[in-house]
Here is the input.
Amino acid sequence: MRGTGRSLARRWVWALLGCLGMALFGIGTYAAWQYERMWTRWNGPLPQVPEVPRVPAASPTPAGAAVAKAPGDPFTVAVLGIDSRGERRARADTVMVAAVNPRTKRVCFVSIPRDTYVYIPGRGPDKLNHAMAYGGPALMKATLERLLALPIHHYVVLDFAGFTRLVDELGGIEVNVAKRMKYRDPADGTTIDLYPGRQVLNGAQALGYARYRLSDIGPSDSDVERMRRQQEVLRALADKTNDLRTWLHLFAVLDILGDHVRTDLSKAQVLRLAGAFAGGVSDDFLILETLRGEDRLVRGSRGRRVWYTFVPERERQAAAAQLRAVLNEAAQQGKRSERKGVP
Here is the structure.
């Protein structure tokens, strides 16, 4: 009888293990299918730089896009937030350049004022965010290369609708609202209405918090304050990756990213990044910097006076040096690994 009982228990154990194995196989298969579906949607072709320049032929030759990096190599990426609203040519509302280090798991983000006075290849002097409308991510990359004197290897574009859905899916983000924020733009329906204090914001509120600059009830904020809040939101989202409960939303997040993200990162690079940063990004490995400049009212080519942000050369060099430091750190580690024979 005792032998029969042990045999029955073993059969139950094997049956449970078999069911668990089948369940894990099913989940893995579905995850692979969902990822493939997401990547197919978000890996669209890069728009081309405008063929007909609006500046004299004697102007500087446009800088070409940097050569894409192999999986596992350090790389730079233009991170762009847009409010397309169905428009064919959307401007970039949020502009960041990131240096990503898959080997040492370090990431450096540099926020850049969207009104920065730049030379846009093929167009001439203009605001940085106009490059997105003129020529999409390709022209934005070329413009940022000129601004920072640094190769920009890739781009990631996220629209506002996707950001809102993502924050809602993850249960909101916690931030400390420093002051009363109230603004409404009847032209596009933007409504921001937040009270001071630490609180959890839903997707629409988080988007308003990140975009807020003009005010209906007091002085408007500077673009530097606006970028600081964008970095705060970015850090709050990074903190979400350290929460195991976030992984319960994996399939829904993949679906949202598939609908609202466009990038030229390869499938192999995305998989490598997922493995490198599967445990999240800690504060020690996330560097957030801001490119600062001086706002000036300048008379444009059509006689209108326009606000631009003029970034000093020393600021640009310091930002580029910070980004290079992260890239070189990864490269140096790679060289040490090769000398030791580590694959």
